[in-house]
From TrEMBL:
It comes from Saccharopolyspora terrae. The keyword NAD applies. InterPro entries: FAD/NAD-bd_sf, Lycopene_cyclase_b/e. GO terms for molecular function: intramolecular oxidoreductase activity; oxidoreductase activity, acting on paired donors, with incorporation or reduction of molecular oxygen. Belongs to the lycopene cyclase family. One of its GO terms (biological process) is carotenoid biosynthetic process. Pfam families: Lycopene_cycl (PF05834). SUPFAM superfamilies: FAD/NAD(P)-binding domain. This is Lycopene cyclase family protein.
Amino acid sequence: MADVVVVGGGPAGRAAASACSDAGLAVTLVDPAPRSGWASTFGSWADELPPDVAALSTVMDRVHLHGTSSHVWRRPYAVLDNTALWKHLWRADVTEVTGRAVAAEHGPTGSTLILKDGRRLAAGVVVDATGPARALSGGRPAHPPAQQTAVGWIVDSATAEAFCGPGEGVFMDWRSAPRTRGGWPTFLYAVRVGPDQVLLEETSLARRPALPLALLRRRLAGRLADAGIDPESRLGEERVRFPVDDPLPRPGRVVPFGAAAGFVHPASGFSVARALRRAPWLAAALSGGLAGVTPGPATAARAGWQVLWPPDVLAAHVLRQRSLRALLSLPPELVPEFFEAFFTLPEAHRIEFLSGEGTSAGTARAMSALFARVPWSVRRRIVLGGMSFGHPAAKHGLGGS
C-alpha cells in the first residue's frame, strides 16, 4: 500500500508527488498519460517561485501595464520551462500508474482508489490534483463558472518587438483591439516563452458566460494586423479556458491540491507557483499525520487541508472572490478605469493583492486603497457588485467583435 496516491500528473500533481517522495513517503501517481508533457504556458512573478524553479524559467526584467495610460512594473516575471520543470519534479521512486480515477472509498486504516477500468489501489491518503475537474473532490460545481479564456499566437522575437522588446513583457494592456465593436473588454498579454519566441495572447480575465475563443481570435488577429504582423507568421496557437471562481471543496478524506483545491487566483488566474511552494508543506503535514502521536489517514488528511488553507489565507481568499464579483458587475467602459487605478497603487498593495499567499489584513488594505482611488462611478459598481450574493451573470453582453 502506498502512503500517498496522487491523482493527476500536471504541475501541481507532480509537485505533490515529488515533495511527498522527498519526505520519505511511498508515493503512487495516477494519470491517464503520466509521461505526457504540459502544453499550457505557466507564468508567475519570479519572486513567488521556489528558487530552484525560478532558475529553470525564462525571466523578464519588467512588464508593461496599460489601463487608460501606460506604466512599467520593474518586477521580474517568469515563464516556466515545462520540459525542465517536468524533469525537475520527476522522481524515480514514484510509482506511475496509467489510468483514470473515478472514485475513492475510505476506511479507518486507509483509502482505496478505484480506476475506470476497475483496478483498485490502496493508499494511506489520496491527493486530488485533477485541476478544475476535481474528480475526487465533489466534481464540477452546479453553477456556471466565471471563466478566464484566451487565444494566443507564438511568434518569433523580432516579430513581437511591436509589443515588447528584449527582457520585457506585457502583463495587461487594456487598450481595445482595432476594429473591436463593443462587448466585454479584453487585454493583450505578451511573454517570452524561450530565447527567440514570444506568446501574444488576447485574454478575457473573467466572464460569466465566458467570452468565446473565436471572438478572442478575431480580436487578436486585428490587434496583430494593426501592428503589421501577418497571421501566417505565427508558429503556433494556444487556447485557454478555466474557471476562476469555483467554491472551495469541502475538507474530507481526499486532500485536494492545486487548482482542485481552489488555488486559482481570481485576479490573475495563477495557481502553479502556489502549488510549487505549498507542496513541501503538504508533504510534511501528511507525513506528520501518518506517523504522529495520533497517527492515521484521517489525521493526515485533516492536517493536509489545514496547511493548505489556514484561517487567514482562507479569509484573504474570500476577500478576493468578493473583488471578482465586483469586477463582473462593472459595465465594459469602466473596466480599464478599474485597472488603471490598480496599476497606480503602491507596489506593496499590488504585490499583496496578486499573491496567493497574502494575508487578509494586507488584502483588505489593498482593496481599501483601490476603492479610494477609483472614480465614483466605479465605486458605486464595486459596492453593489461586492455586496451581491450568488453568482451574477454578465449583464452587459458578450457583444462586439
